[in-house]
Design a protein that fits this description.
Layout (H helix, E strand, L loop, with lengths): L1 H23 L5 H13 L6 H9 L1 H5 L5 E3 L3 E8 L3 E10 L7 E6 L4 E5 L9 E9 L5 E11 L6 E10 L1
C-alpha cells in the first residue's frame, strides 16, 4: 500500500514539475530558473528534452537577422526504386531576402534519411543546396519521408518531403 501511494505521489509531483516548466517558459524569473534546475537534477529524463527542442529551433533565428528563401521544389518523387537502393536528391535553395541565409540544421524524420546542406551563409541572390540521402533497405511499397530545415526565416522549420515506390 505504501509503495502504491509513493508511486501516485511521485506521479503527481512529476506532473506538477512538467506543468510548471511549461508555464514558466515564457516569463522566466530567477525563481523559476532555480526551480527548473532543481527539477532537472531530480528528473534527468526531462532535462535533455526541453533544451534540445528550444536550441534546435532558435539558433539561426536568434543570432541572425531574418531573411527569405525560395526552393526549387519542396517535394520530390523518386518513382520506382529497388529495395536496398540508396538514392539522393538535391533541393536547391535561393536566398531571396536582403540578409545572409543561414541554415542551422536539417532534421530528418527517420534514421533512413541523412542530410547534407550548405553550411556557410548564403548571400542574397545566391544559391545553396540541401541533399537528402535515402536508404530503402527497410521498406516495401509506397513511402513518404521528410526533413525539417531550420534557418533564419520567418516560417522555420521548412518541410522537405520525398516519396518512393519500393519494389522487391
Amino acid at each position: 500500500m505504501k509503495k502504491t501511494l509513493s508511486i501516485i505521489a511521485l506521479s503527481i509531483i512529476g506532473f506538477g514539475l512538467v506543468s510548471c516548466k511549461k508555464e514558466n517558459k515564457e516569463a522566466q524569473t530567477a525563481e523559476s530558473v532555480a526551480t527548473d534546475s532543481s527539477a532537472a537534477a531530480t528528473t534527468p529524463a526531462d532535462s535533455p528534452v526541453a533544451p534540445a527542442t528550444t536550441e534546435a529551433v532558435t539558433p539561426a533565428q536568434s543570432n541572425q537577422p531574418s531573411t527569405s528563401l525560395a526552393l526549387s521544389e519542396s517535394n520530390f518523387d523518386f518513382g520506382n526504386i529497388k529495395k536496398g537502393d540508396k538514392v539522393e536528391h538535391v533541393y536547391e535553395v535561393t536566398n531571396t531576402g536582403k540578409n545572409p541565409l543561414v541554415i542551422s540544421e536539417v532534421k530528418p524524420g527517420c534514421g533512413c534519411t541523412a542530410p547534407d546542406f550548405t553550411k556557410e551563409p548564403i548571400l542574397p541572390g545566391k544559391k545553396g543546396k540541401i541533399t537528402l540521402h535515402f536508404d530503402s533497405s527497410s521498406f516495401d511499397g509506397n513511402v513518404q519521408k521528410y526533413a525539417d530545415v531550420y534557418a533564419n526565416v520567418e516560417k522555420s522549420p521548412i518541410k522537405l518531403t520525398f516519396t518512393a515506390n519500393i519494389q522487391p
